[in-house]
Amino acid sequence: MKKHFFRKCMLLLCPFFGQQLAAQTVTWQPEILKQNQKISFQYQPKGGDLEFSDGPKSLAAVYNGNKWTTVPVQLAKKSDIWTGNYQLPDHALLIALKFYQGDLQNPEAVDNQNGKGYYHQVMDTKGKIIPGTYLAEAGLKAGATGDWTLNSFVSPSKDQKMIDSLLQKEEKLSKRIPRSLLFNYLDLKQLTMPAAEFSVMADNLLKGELKNGKLNEQFLAQAQRYYDKLKDKNGSAAVKSIILKDYPKSSTARFLSFRKNTQGKYGKDFETGAEDFLKAFPYSDWKKSPDNQGYIYYTIFRNLATQYFDDGQNEKFLGLFKDIDFKTANEIYRWNITRNQMAGKSDQKLLYNDSRIIIPYLLERQKDKSYSGDFDDAEKAQENANNQMDDRLFTHIALANAQGDYAGANQYFKYLSEKGTFGNADLNEMHVNVLEKLNDTKAIKPLLESSVAANAVTPVMFTKLKELYKSEHGGKEEGYEQYLASLTPSDKKNEMKVHVMANMVNYPLTPFSLENADGKMVNSKDWADQIVVIDFWATWCRPCIEAFPGMQLLIDQYAKDPKVAVYMIGTMQFGDYKAKSVNYVKSQGFRFNLLHDAISQTGTQDQVFKSLLPLFKQSSIPRKIIVKNGVVRYSSEGYSGSPSQLRDELSTAIEILRAEK
C-alpha cells in the first residue's frame, strides 16, 4: 500500500490532481438484474482509494424482503478491472456492494463510491420491480436497516426529501403497504414527519390492519411493540388483549407475562410474580420446543434463586437445579455459593451441604451446549463451560477442605479439565493438604512436580517440595535448584521470555522521595546502581493482596543480591492508610520494603502512580514496574493467580535487564 499512501499525499498537496483521474465505477451484467439469476459485476477502482490496491475484497449485501444478509464475493483481476460473480437468491429485491483493503472489521481503506454506494435493484423473473424495493433503498440510504454494519455500504443520510421521494414511489408501486413491510415503512415515515402527526398516522394505519382481521402472532407482536414505542398505552393494551385471547400460549404471550410479573418487582413481590409466571409458562413446556426466549427463564431462575437463598428457603433454592441447564445452574451457583464462600459470608457448612447437592447436577449438564448462543464457535462455547466448571469445582473443594471433609474434596479433583488440573496454584496447595490429611504421601511429590511444570506453585508448596528433596538426599539441599529448574518445560520458559519481552518499555521515571514503614524517606535517586522492582498495590485491592505470596518469592530469591531491590508502594488508599498498610503486611508475615505513595495536588494518595499514567494508559492495579538507571524498563498489569508464575515473570525481566551492557 506504499503507492496508496503516496497517492494520498499527492491528493492533499494538489487539489487539482484528483480531478484528472477517472471516477471509480461498477458495471453490472446483465443491466437488468432478476431474482434467481447469476450475475457479474466489473469494478474499476481508478480514482478511488483502492486504485493501487493489489488485492481488494468485495462484500455483497442483499435484501430479500425480510432482512439483509451479507456475503463475501471473490474478485478476479483482468487488466485494471476486477470482476466478481454472484448468484442472486429467489427473493432478492436489492443488492449493494462495498470494496475494501485488509480486514473486514478494521479495513485499511474502503470504497463505497464516496458514500453514494454501489447498489442495484433486482426485478422479478418477468422483469418487473417488486414491492418493497424502494423501502429497501430508503432504509439503506437512511441507515435505517437495523444493522449498523450496513452503514459502510452507503453513507447514511436522514434527508427528508430523499426518504419521502422513495416512500412515495413505494406507495405508488404497492398501492397499499402490505403487512410484511408496514413496520419498515413506519420507521422510515417517522423520519419525514413531526412526531405528533406521525403518531396519529401510525395509529390509523395500525387500527386499519387490526380491523381487517386474519392477524397472525408475528404481526400482533410487532404492533404491540410499536405501540409501546409510540408510548400509546391504549393501543398497546388493545393489542395485548387480542394476543392473550387468540394466542394465549404463544411466545409473545410468554414475553408479556414475563414483563407483567417481574418488571420493577423485588423481594417477595418478585418471588410471587416469578412463581406465577412459571405456573402459566412452565420451563418444561418451553424445553419441548425452545425458541429465542431462553433468556426469560435464565433471568427468572437466576433472580428467583437469589431470593430463595437470601430468604433462607433452602429447599426451594435446591429444587430449582433439577431441570435447569448448565449455564443457568452455573450462574446461580456462582452468585450464591461461590460469592459467599469467597467473602466468608453465610453459614459455610450450609454452603458446603448445598454444594454437595448442586455439583453433581452441574457435572451432569456440563456438555449440554447451553453456552452455544454466547459464542460463534462450538469449541469455544464448550471451553468456556469447562472453565466455569473448574471454577465451581474450586469452590466445592475449598468448602470441603475447610469443613475437614478431605475424602469428599479428593473425589472431585478428577473432574477438573486438562487446563484446570494443575493450572491453579491455590487449588494445587489445597490438593497437597488433602493428600497429607488422607496420608496419601506417594501422590504428593508427583503433584508438586506437575504443579511446578505448570508454573502454579505457592510458597508452601515450594517448602514442601524442598523438604521432600532433602529427605531423599540425606538432608542436603545440594542440587535442589537444578532439580527444580529441570521440572519446567523449555517451551514454558520460552513462552515466559516472549511475554516479558512484549512488556519491555523505555519510560523516564520522575524522581521521587517516599516515606517507608519506619517513617524514613526513601529517594529514587539512590537506586542508580540497582535494578528495582516496584509493586503498586492497595489494601482494598484483592488481586494485589493475592499477588503477595508471589512477591515474597521474588524478594526471597534476591534477598542476598545487593544489585536488586523490591519496593511495595501502597497507593490510592484512604483514611489512615499508613497504619492499614503496615499492620496488614505485618499481620500476614510478609517481609516487604513498604513505601507510602505521596498525596497529589488533587488530595489523593497517588502522586507517583499518577506520574506514570501516560505509560500505564489506565489506573488499574496491581501494577508492577522495573526501574534501571532512572528509567522504567518493564511494566505489567494484573495477577495471573500463580505466585510462582509472578516470581518467574519478574525474575526473567530482571535477568534480561541485568544482561544488558
Low-confidence stretches: 1-22
Shape: globular
The main pleated sheet reads as: 8 strands, mixed
Q: What is the CATH topology of the domain at 495-659? A: Glutaredoxin
Question: How are the strands of the biggest sheet laid out side by side?
Answer: 11-18-17-14-15-16-12-13
> What structural category characterises the helix and strand content?
alpha+beta
The number of distinct helices, counting runs of at least 4 residues, comes to 28
Q: CATH homologous superfamily of the domain at 495-659? A: Glutaredoxin
Instruction: Please give the number of β-strands.
Output: 18
Q: Could you say what the CATH architecture of the domain at 495-659 is?
A: 3-Layer(aba) Sandwich
- CATH class wording of the domain at 495-659: Alpha Beta
Strand percent estimate: 15-25%
Radius of gyration, Cα only, in angstroms? 33 Å
**Can you give the helix content as a percent range?**
40-55%
End-to-end distance: 39 Å
Q: What's the pLDDT, averaged over the residues? A: 93
